[in-house]
């Protein structure tokens, strides 16, 4: 039994020995935890404390080339009132600083966050004509620094910038706007720092999902040139140019269609009876006030520019058409009043003449019977006759409601009378003014629309 126990003990010892050997072998093959010595290794490799990084690389020598590329993440907003735009982008810089070179058997780069950026030299690129800008810091600062063994450096950061854009609203809202984001070194002239696009036009990339509610993005492209300041000198400046075309459908629904409908509504008064004063006046005032509200609403969302915009031309011409329809009824009402006053005078004169019979004796006399009811043509036919001394005649009692008037007129006066009546017929017949307005107003407005849309589209 003791021999058996001894054998079991020896077997257990051998098993434990082999297991312990395998464990130590695997631990020996596992790579060491380099994070425990990263601080010491970084200081040794990059030699941050051994150099003065307040000075640019190769100070005193030729200008250091700094390549730039940009990836546009989003185009957040375009403001016509403030004349600016807001863009979020990834800005990347490429340069070589031999002071950061290190030896590496694997030739792998080292990546750091924004804490190391404060200890080394980086390009001082800023956005020209920017109003506001910031580096995103959620959850940490969106800054990346990558250093290669030969000293090449990649410096990337995520920025949102609001920059000015000189917009021309002379064709608004049928316009296209070209905005520019400009990058430049703040302190280093072209003799110290050469800023350039790293891969030409391919240095600018945009997200295909970028879209705007009011604009269609037509084109993105890059350019570069020198900028001169009288006090400091020449600087390399990079440009990100993009062209935006405005969507017209929103303004058709909100501005053009309502204005057109108000103009058409003002034409309804031409079919309303001229004696319906409250209906025609209220309709004209309503359309005028509505047009004023539309014009005020459009100008409230636009900058106060000193030139005329395309939408102003359309709205103000529409306003003039609405206003002229009100003036048209004012003219109709005035001529109607004048005509009724003239008819009233003729009626009163006829009534007075009925009380006393008279004869007006001249050559080529003709007799005409008039009673209390007469037409406008009958009264107009009295024009051109001259009165003669009246002669009283005896009349029968049953004929007292009539009077006999002896009138005479030469052939020449008859021709002149007919021409005068024909010339004044349109002015006296106020229905003719409304009739012509029904054709002139729509025709003129259609011609205006054809010219307007052919010019601006």
Radius of gyration: 48 Å
Oligomeric state: single chain
How much of the residues is beta strand, in percent?
25-35%
How many DSSP helices? 9
- Spatial shape: elongated
How many strands, what sense, and barrel or not for the largest sheet? 8 strands, mixed
Structural class: alpha+beta
Percentage of residues in helical conformation: 25-40%
Mean of pLDDT: 80
Distance between the termini: 110 Å
Q: Could you give the count of β-strands?
A: 14
Low-confidence stretches: 33-40, 361-413
Elements, N to C (H/E): HHEEEHEEEEEEEEEHHHEHEHH
Subcellular location: Postsynaptic cell membrane
Organism: Cyprinus carpio
Main location: membrane
Pfam family, one: Neur_chan_LBD
Concise overview:
GO terms for molecular function: chloride channel activity; extracellular ligand-gated monoatomic ion channel activity; transmembrane signaling receptor activity. The chain has 457 residues and is α+β, with helices and mostly antiparallel strands.
Protein architecture, described:
This protein is α+β, with helices and mostly antiparallel strands. Helices cover 39% and strands 26% of the residues. Strands 1, 2, 3, 5, 6, 7, 9 and 10 form an 8-stranded mixed sheet that branches. Strand 6 and strand 7 (152-164) form a beta hairpin. The longest helix is centred in the last third of the chain and has 45 residues, at 310-354. The chain is elongated and about 155 Å long. The termini are far apart.
Secondary-structure map:
Elements: H1 2-29, H2 38-46, E1 64-79, E2 84-96, E3 110-112, H3 114-117, E4 125-128, E5 130-135, E6 143-147, E7 152-164, E8 176-185, E9 193-197, E10 204-206, E11 215-229, E12 233-246, H4 249-266, H5 277-300, H6 310-354, E13 365-370, H7 376-380, E14 403-408, H8 411-428, H9 430-456
Parallel strand pairs: 1-9, 1-10
Antiparallel strand pairs: 1-2, 2-7, 3-6, 4-8, 5-7, 6-7, 8-12, 11-12, 13-14
């Amino acid at each position: 039994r003791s021999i058996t126990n001894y054998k079991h003990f020896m077997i257990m010892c051998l098993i434990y020995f082999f297991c312990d050997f395998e464990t130590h072998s695997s631990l020996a093959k596992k790579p060491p935890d380099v994070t425990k010595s990263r601080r010491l290794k970084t200081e040794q490799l990059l030699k941050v404390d051994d150099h003065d990084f307040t000075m640019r690389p190769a100070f005193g020598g030729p200008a250091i080339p700094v390549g730039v590329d940009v990836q546009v993440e989003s185009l957040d907003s375009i403001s016509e009132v403030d004349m600016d735009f807001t863009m979020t982008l990834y800005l990347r810089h490429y340069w070589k600083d031999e002071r950061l070179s290190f030896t590496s058997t694997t030739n792998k780069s080292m990546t750091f966050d924004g804490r190391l950026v404060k200890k080394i030299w980086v390009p001082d690129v800023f956005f020209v004509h920017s109003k506001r800008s910031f580096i995103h810091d959620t959850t940490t600062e969106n800054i990346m620094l990558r250093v290669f063994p030969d000293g090449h450096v990649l410096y990337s950061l995520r920025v949102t910038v609001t920059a000015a854009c000189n917009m021309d609203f002379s064709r608004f809202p049928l316009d296209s706007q070209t905005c520019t984001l400009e990058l430049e070194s703040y302190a280093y002239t072209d003799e110290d720092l050469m800023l350039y696009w790293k891969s030409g036009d391919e240095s600018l990339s945009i997200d295909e999902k970028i879209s705007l509610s009011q604009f269609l993005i037509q084109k993105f492209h890059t350019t570069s040139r020198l900028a001169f300041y009288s006090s400091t000198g020449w600087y390399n400046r990079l440009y990100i140019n993009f062209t935006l075309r405005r969507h017209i459908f929103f303004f058709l629904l909100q501005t053009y269609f309502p204005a057109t409908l108000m103009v058409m509504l003002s034409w309804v008064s031409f079919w309303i009876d001229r004696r319906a004063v409250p209906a025609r006046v209220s309709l004209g005032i309503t359309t005028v006030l509505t047009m004023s509200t539309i014009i005020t609403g459009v100008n409230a969302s636009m900058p106060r520019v000193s030139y005329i915009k395309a939408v102003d031309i359309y709205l103000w011409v529409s306003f003039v058409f609405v206003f002229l329809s009100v003036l048209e009824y004012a003219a109709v009402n005035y001529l109607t009043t004048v005509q009724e006053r003239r008819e009233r005078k003729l009626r009163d004169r006829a009534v007075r003449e009925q009380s006393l019979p008279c004869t007006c004796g001249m050559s080529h006399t003709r007799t005409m019977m008039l009673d209390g009811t007469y037409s406008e043509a009958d009264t107009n036919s009295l024009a051109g006759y001259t009165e003669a001394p009246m002669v009283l005649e005896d009349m029968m009692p049953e004929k007292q409601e009539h009077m006999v008037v002896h009138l005479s007129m030469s052939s020449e006066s008859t021709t002149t009378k007919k021409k005068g009546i024909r010339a004044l017929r349109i002015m006296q017949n106020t229905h003719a003014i409304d009739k012509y307005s029904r054709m002139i107003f729509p025709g003129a407005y259609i011609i205006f629309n054809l010219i307007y849309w052919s010019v601006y589209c």
